[in-house]
Design brief:
- The chain is mostly helical.
- The protein has ten helices and no strands.
- The protein has helices at 2-13, 19-46, 55-62, 75-84, 89-100, 107-129, 136-143, 150-158, 172-182, 193-196.
- Helix 2 (19-46) packs across helix 6 and helix 5 (89-100) packs antiparallel against helix 6.
- The longest helix has 28 residues, at 19-46.
- It starts with a helix and ends in an 18-residue tail after the last helix.
- Mean pLDDT is 85; it is low at 196-214.
Length: 214
């Protein structure tokens, strides 16, 4: 996974852009990664296919709603571990690497796609930090829109079928529109499967702000 991202960045940087093009590619990739990962989050929250080799991953994914505060881990471990569970990301990266061999591919598009892949892993850090303590620098990054604001993400846990984006939340209005029109909500669906399994049943402590009071 990390080797693939390093290869993508190496190839994209070998096709330089001017500063305006580089900045535009970065911002577009941020929006695309926020939207893509948010839509996948939306679909996974409603997925109830527990059979097959992906079943344990689906069940484990649903448990994140029952964990208001995550265990302390080194951020590089979170990056590597959580990226490994994004089953679609290796195929996405492989597709971009194949496109690199197309000499007619615009460098701007290549930069956007490569950054989108890397930012999809960065989104896992952003989400982790919404369930963990963080300092002033990380709070500043959230205010600047480079990380997801804790209180914005808390809405996803308090309410139903909203605020699925978890890179920085810029695309939540669009994803919320898709959720309202196409999905029933998870609180009366997959969230109840944990109770039905006999493994739990205690009410979930909802997030009402930064976990741990930080």
């Amino acid at each position: 996974m990390l080797a693939g991202q390093a290869a993508l960045l190496a190839h994209t940087l070998a096709r330089p852009l001017d500063w305006a093009g580089g900045l535009a590619a970065f911002l577009l990739a941020y929006v695309l990664a926020d939207l893509l990962n948010g839509l996948i989050h939306l679909a996974m929250d409603h997925c109830a296919r527990y059979s097959g080799w992906t079943g344990p991953l689906v069940a484990a994914f649903h448990l994140h709603h029952r964990t208001p505060r995550y265990q302390d881990k080194a951020l590089w471990r979170v990056y590597v571990h959580e990226s490994g569970f994004k089953l679609w990301l290796p195929a996405f990266q492989a597709g971009i690497l194949l496109l690199i061999w197309n000499p007619g591919l615009p460098p701007f598009l290549l930069r956007v796609l490569a950054l989108c892949a890397v930012l999809s892993s960065w989104a896992e850090l952003s989400h982790y930090l919404c369930h963990n303590r963080r300092g002033r620098l990380l709070n500043l990054l959230a205010r600047c829109g480079l990380l997801l604001d804790m209180r914005r993400h808390a809405r996803h846990h308090r309410e139903d079928n909203c605020s699925y984006a978890f890179l920085n939340g810029w695309t939540n209005p669009l994803i919320d529109l898709v959720a309202r029109r196409c999905f029933p909500g998870y609180k009366q669906g997959t969230d109840l499967h944990y109770q039905d399994s006999g493994q739990g049943g205690a009410p979930v402590r909802e997030m009402d702000g930064p976990p741990g009071g930080g």
